[in-house]
Amino acid sequence: MSPASGGGGGPQRAGRIVLVGLMGSGKSTIGRRLARRLGWPMRDSDDQLRSLTGLTARAYGQAHGTPALHQAEAEALLAALAEPGPLVIGAAASVIENSAARAALRGPGVAVVWLRGSPAVLAARFGGGAHRPIYGPDPLAVAREQAQVREPLFASVDPITIDVDRHRPARIEEAALDGLRERLPELRLGSET
């Protein structure tokens, strides 16, 4: 049984594949794998933020506050979506709370892949990088709260949904490609073009 489930949308022509999900769901890892397989460039939110501001997400949030960080992350997504040519984008988890970002994710030419994980699994991954914001002594409580707020919003952009808890990156990548092939019949892997 595949860990992926498609959204209600029919086939569409896309020049953008955007990975969304809570922090720790694997957006950067799976995004890089998909970009490599497709032969497309990749834009990762953390890298974009660092390139635009010179700061990691953690440093930016500490210097300017969480609302400013989330606005900068939404702006990074919108800038990536405005670039020409096909692109794989790993979006920051917070962008789904931004109405302009949600509207852009529903736009023509955009296929969204939601890497969905349980709060318990994702909270265990929170400490995996110095670039990530600090979530205090109870990351599980933070993950649960974020899931409660963000999961309905992720679902609202008609994503290809992939459960990531018990799957290795290679399996998640294949599930994403299967879902994308259904949505994007013209999609070709780098070796198929």
The counted number of beta strands is 6
Shape: globular
In DSSP terms, counting alpha (H) and pi (I) runs of 4 or more, how many helices? 8
CATH class: Alpha Beta
What structural category do the secondary elements indicate? alpha/beta
Can you tell me the residue ranges where pLDDT is under 50 for at least 5 consecutive residues? 7-13
**Mean pLDDT metric:** 86
How would you sum up this structure, described in words?
The relative contact order is 0.24. The protein has helices at 27-38, 45-53, 57-64, 66-82, 99-105, 119-125, 139-155, 169-183; strands spanning 4-5, 16-20, 42-44, 87-90, 110-116, 160-163. The protein starts with a strand and ends in a 10-residue tail after the last helix. It is of the alpha/beta class. The protein has a single domain (4-182), classed as Rossmann fold (3-Layer(aba) Sandwich). The protein is built from 8 helices and 6 strands; from the N terminus they run E-E-H-E-H-H-H-E-H-E-H-H-E-H.
